[in-house]
Amino acid sequence: MSTTTLGTLAFRPLDPLEDAELLHGWVTHSKAAFWMMQEARLEDVERAYMEIAADEHQDALIGLHDGQPAFLMERYDPAHRELVGLYEPRPGDVGMHFLVAPTETPVHGFTRAVITAVMRRLFDDPSTARVVVEPDVHNTAVHALNAAVGFVPEREILKPEKTALLSFCTRAQFERAVAA
């Protein structure tokens, strides 16, 4: 849990059945185009998050803003999911995705506060040495957010569903970025 000038951000485990309707609204919204679930049905969302919940190499959390669901965080082991064969994973590498819920009244700085809270949550685990992300090369908004919390792009990689910008952030890079 972290408290910012924008309120309190916390996490709870995602329940695939209880949260499917909420998540369906988020992942099919036009602002979530890079999530690549625009055409998903409610059952598709349930199934996707049931698979994540059952997988020992990944998990998902609902992010809360002042106690209300406001964002999604997915954590995965890149040696077993998403990036297998696309780079050489190191011990302590953790993959991450995040999605902020769509809103009619955006709050300036909220998404940056969310990615900062997500990164803190990942680095709260002492075994996490480096966070790995692979956003779409065209998602310039997330590239800027990633840079703001210390990510350094390494190279473009070709995934089955997209061309991605493979980027890394060590604990030290994150700490320097958020201290600035």
Automatic annotation (TrEMBL):
<feature type="domain" description="Acyltransferase MbtK/IucB-like conserved">
    <location>
        <begin position="12"/>
        <end position="59"/>
    </location>
</feature>
<comment type="function">
    <text>Acyltransferase required for the direct transfer of medium- to long-chain fatty acyl moieties from a carrier protein (MbtL) on to the epsilon-amino group of lysine residue in the mycobactin core.</text>
</comment>
<dbReference type="InterPro" id="IPR016181">
    <property type="entry name" value="Acyl_CoA_acyltransferase"/>
</dbReference>
<dbReference type="Pfam" id="PF13523">
    <property type="entry name" value="Acetyltransf_8"/>
</dbReference>
<dbReference type="InterPro" id="IPR019432">
    <property type="entry name" value="Acyltransferase_MbtK/IucB-like"/>
</dbReference>
<protein>
    <recommendedName>
        <fullName>Lysine N-acyltransferase MbtK</fullName>
    </recommendedName>
</protein>
<comment type="pathway">
    <text>Siderophore biosynthesis; mycobactin biosynthesis.</text>
</comment>
